[in-house]
Design brief:
This protein is an all-alpha fold. The chain has 7 helices and no strands. The chain is about 70% helix and about 0% strand. The C terminus is likely disordered.
Length: about 150
Amino acid sequence: MKSRHLAREIALQILYEYDVGSFPTGVELDGAIHKHFEHFKVPEKLRDFAGELVRGTVQHREALDQTLEKHATHWKLSRMSVIDRNLLRMALYEMQNFKDIPASVSIDEAIELAKQFGSSESPSFINGILDAYHRENSAPGSSSKESE
């Protein structure tokens, strides 16, 4: 298994914990990330990428949610499963902030994680929303500034 795929899997697990409110009261995000890494003995080589995905996704959650709701036609984030919602946030954050990773890779990785952790409908749901975002923001002459 590729290390970035595993790092994304770890990030998704932490984002899930964060979203369902299972972080102990008063524990800062960095502390919770570190505790997760230590508890599950996450290899050092995975920690930077996984940590950046979690921190960035949480820090930009409001803007990510607005972008996702725009592209998730007829869906409110609150109606989405916790897995789908966090996969979408994380993949969108990655697409906007990791310019060295092609958008197609970010989308494919999100689909693979949806197959692992989501429902049978999750992969096509994730693909549809991320693809709509990507098409809008990669079109020639696109003036969208959502990635900034």
